[in-house]
Design goal:
single chain, mainly beta, Ribosomal Protein L25, Chain P, RNA Polymerase Alpha Subunit, Chain A, domain 2, 2 domains, 4-stranded mixed β-sheet, elongated
Length: 180
């Protein structure tokens, strides 16, 4: 399913112009990409929120700006801590990109063998940073924990060869462990 979001070019940037946009139901945003000039746009709040809810931060969608189309993913969403409204959005233009770095949720599968003797799986990490083609970003990365016994830990270097993506987290990054 290809989602298309219409945006308008912003002629002004800065705090005051962004306040006016937000007051009129628009979200200030920027589209950027490697070796490309930044494009400052405004997005309709309701349509963007629906799109964000549908695609999340790891799916590609299209933004049309005055006849030009950009294939983008959401790189950052800034939220007002008091009102919980979106205040700014960074969109990364992935057209022409080889691979990009994204955070993908971890899904632990299986029951650790240490659970049979009273051990409990403690999850320490909730996502992994991987390098991937933007059109092939997985919804989650499944990691089998059924071989873990009490006292065992799962770190990146132990799963590196079992996952078809280049993991950007440090080799000693702790993912989970089984403890009594």
């Amino acid at each position: 399913m290809s989602l298309v979001l219409e945006a308008k070019l912003r002629d002004k940037t800065g705090k005051e112009s962004c306040k006016k946009l937000r007051k009129n139901g628009l979200i200030p945003a920027v589209i950027y990409g490697k070796g490309k000039e930044n494009v400052f746009v405004s997005l309709p709040r309701g349509e963007f929120e629906k799109t964000l809810h549908h695609v999340g931060t790891n799916k590609v969608f299209t933004v049309k700006v005055e006849g030009k189309s950009y294939e983008v993913i959401v790189k950052e969403v800034q939220i007002n801590p008091v009102t919980r409204e979106i205040t700014h959005v960074d969109l990364q233009d992935i057209s022409g990109s080889d691979k990009i770095a994204v955070k993908v949720p971890i899904e632990f599968v299986g029951i650790p063998k240490g659970a049979n003797v009273g051990g409990v799986l403690r999850k320490v990490a909730w996502n992994l940073k991987i390098l991937v083609d933007p059109r092939q970003i997985p919804d989650s990365i499944k990691i089998d924990v059924s071989d873990l016994d009490v006292g065992d830990t799962l770190v990146v270097y132990k799963i590196k060869d079992k996952i078809p993506y280049r993991i950007l987290n440090h080799d000693n990054y702790l993912l989970a462990g089984v403890y009594k």
